[in-house]
Specification:
The complex is a heterodimer of chains A (374) and B (198). Chain A has two domains: 4-208, Clam (outer membrane lipoprotein receptor (LolB), chain A), CATH 2.50.20; 223-372, 2-Layer Sandwich (Phosphorylase Kinase, domain 1), CATH 3.30.200. In chain A, 21% of the residues lie in helices and 36% in strands. Chain A contains six helices and 16 strands. In chain A, the strands form two sheets. An eight-stranded antiparallel beta sheet of chain A has the order 3-2-1-8-7-6-5-4, with helices on both faces. Chain A starts with a helix and ends with a helix. Chain B has 198 residues and is mainly α. Chain B contains eight helices and one strand; from the N terminus they run αααααααβα. In chain B, 6% of the residues are buried. The chains are: A alpha+beta (374), B mainly alpha (198). The interface between A and B is large, with 47 and 29 residues. Strand 14 of chain A pairs parallel with strand 1 (172-178) of chain B, so a sheet runs across the interface.
Chain lengths: 374, 198
């Protein structure tokens, strides 16, 4: 149940947005093609829609979609990319394939198409696993989010159920989902910030619940090793740059800064081209997430710049001592928030959604930890 | 408490303060002509002034050296009868009277050392006290020097420890520097997608 405070802020905005989205055509001259099944619909009433259902169907349902991924530019313009996504629906060994098709509204040049294809080939998992709505931790999601039902409607000739998943805190985005009645898969999802601004959406143009045998699945370009804990990932950093500067790698102590977030992803990636290793730590509150990346052996990008200058100071009794400023580079807009700093020969990067202002405190805490070791 | 100052009128006090000048002038002040006390005081001062102007004659006994020798003898006799004199009499060695022959000083010292005289018992505590005082006076500067050295070494060690600690605990001020352009890093899906549009 949405808290009264959240209701007053979010529900009026979402209601208007839902009305406009529900009335909008799915695509010009196209209707979503849904493979017919004889199974009972996954959603027969609003109460059938739960976070558990969403997590289960998104991991365990084989499907293929052609969808438009729209994202917000820094100048607040929306750009859409058309892509094909195929999932095997095996929760024990999940596999997927994602391919770039085109840019919405334009005909990209062959060079641009090649660049887009290379981006999808390199960052396929980032787009598929972290680029949309996903229940990452069911228990935490139940605690930190509430589900609000907005009934049933028709979209592209198919019945869908509308829900809004809203956070209990006001510094995170809400998710508007249109769920296919048959499969409960989201055929539309929109991310909306606390001020009601649309940050991004994924609009399914075609949905097929049966998949033909897949010739190949997406494979990562980087070598990825996953671990159960951050400490295990830190120990596994065996790059020559990490040796001797192992003390520069740290396990962020951010429990008090972000109490509702917990570590759910710990992996080490290695670039086969130059051997550069990166420790990636992902934290989630059940649905939202942010990342802390640490790359040892990276030169200080701020060396020689005006930031981080020595400033001599004098004490009442004692010799002159120099203080030093440590700079954290910060970028923030409505969709993206990134922090970078370099300490002890380790480049630290922190990134999350633009509405998560508390990442400021996370960056500060990790920087303090890098300086003091505590 | 009653004042010890004599009860005199201000006019009488003024006459008394001006008495030397009036004696030189040999003129009785006008107030003394009407004040009985001041008149008596004036007359007495006049007699005393006359005596003070006259130098008394020196007695004959003091005109020659014998008189002074008699004074010296009397002072020596009194000192001999005092405790210091009695102590010196027992400590000092009786030296033989000088003869017409000149005795070398070394010979005199040899004779003195050949007949040692034990010092009186009451002298040794004084000597011991004096020796201890002198030794203490020499030791105290050394002790001060030693304490100063220890304190200086401790201060040096403490200072090195403090500076070393301060050297490892560098005070770092963490500041945010805002960027106007998002860094081109594949860390979030939106940053990856935006990178293709630059």
């Amino acid at each position: 149940m949405l808290s009264p405070r959240a209701k007053s802020a979010i529900v009026p905005i979402l209601s208007g947005l839902l009305a406009g989205v529900a009335m909008a055509p799915v695509g010009v001259g196209q209707a979503p093609v849904v493979a017919a099944t004889e199974q009972a619909p996954a959603i027969q009433q609003a109460s059938d829609i739960t976070l558990d259902l969403l997590q289960r169907v998104m991991q365990g349902t084989p499907f293929r979609v052609r969808q438009v991924r729209r994202f917000l530019q820094p100048d607040d313009t929306m750009v859409g990319v058309i892509e094909d996504l195929t999932c095997n629906g095996d929760p024990t060994q999940p596999r997927f394939d994602i391919d770039f098709i085109s840019v919405e509204g334009t005909a990209p040049s062959p060079q641009a198409t090649g660049q887009w294809s290379a981006t999808y080939a390199t960052n396929g998992s980032l787009l598929h696993e972290h680029g949309g709505f996903r229940v990452r931790d069911l228990r935490a999601a139940r605690i930190h989010y509430s589900m609000n039902h907005f009934g049933r409607s028709m979209r592209g000739g198919q019945p869908v159920w509308w829900v809004v998943i809203a956070p209990n805190s006001r510094d995170k985005a809400s998710w508007v989902l249109a769920l296919d009645e048959q499969s409960a898969l989201p055929v539309y999802q929109a991310q909306i910030d606390p001020r009601g601004r649309l940050l991004g959406e994924i609009d399914v143009r075609q949905l097929s619940l049966t998949t033909s045998p897949q010739a190949s699945w997406w494979t990562p370009v980087l070598a990825v090793s996953r671990f159960s804990t951050a400490e295990a990932a830190r120990v596994a950093m065996t790059a020559p740059q990490a040796r001797g500067v192992g003390s520069g790698l740290l396990v962020p102590a951010i429990d008090q800064v972000m109490p509702e977030y917990s570590l759910y992803l710990a992996q080490v990636t290695a670039d086969p081209a130059n051997g550069q290793q990166t420790m990636v730590l992902g934290y989630t509150d059940g649905i939202d997430e942010f990342f802390v990346l640490q790359s040892p052996g990276v030169a200080d990008p701020f060396a020689g710049l005006p930031v981080g200058t020595a400033r001599p100071t004098t004490k009442a009794s004692g010799p002159i001592r120099s203080d030093r400023e440590m700079a954290i580079a910060r970028y923030e807009d409505s969709s993206l928030r990134v922090y970078l700093f370099q300490r002890n020969s380790v480049m630290v990067r922190i990134a999350g959604n633009g509405s998560l202002v508390r990442l400021n405190d996370v960056a500060l805490r990790i920087a303090q930890q890098a300086v003091t070791g505590v | 408490m009653s004042s010890v100052r004599p009860d005199m009128s201000p006019e009488c006090r003024r006459i008394l303060a001006e008495l030397p000048e009036s004696l030189v002038a040999l003129e009785m002040p006008g107030h003394a002509r009407i004040c009985v006390s001041c008149a008596a005081r004036w007359q007495a001062a006049c007699r005393l002034a006359g005596w003070l102007r006259q130098r008394p004659p020196i007695p004959d006994a003091l005109l020659g050296p014998a008189g002074f020798e008699a004074v010296v003898d009397r002072l020596v006799a009194e000192a001999e009868r005092a405790p210091l004199g009695r102590t010196l009499a027992t400590v000092l060695v009786q030296t033989p009277a000088p003869t017409t022959e000149s005795v070398p000083a070394t010979e005199l010292c040899r004779r003195l050392l050949a007949t040692p005289v034990p010092a009186p018992a009451q002298l040794w505590p004084r000597v011991r006290h004096e020796v201890n005082r002198q030794v203490a006076g020499q030791l105290w500067p050394m002790r001060r020097l030693w304490l100063a050295g220890v304190a200086g070494a401790a201060a040096l060690v403490f200072g090195l420890l403090v500076l070393d600690r301060q050297g490892t605990q560098v005070q770092v001020a963490i500041v945010f520097e805002d960027m106007t352009v998002a860094p081109d890093i594949a860390i979030m899906p939106v940053s990856v997608l935006r990178s293709n549009l630059r």
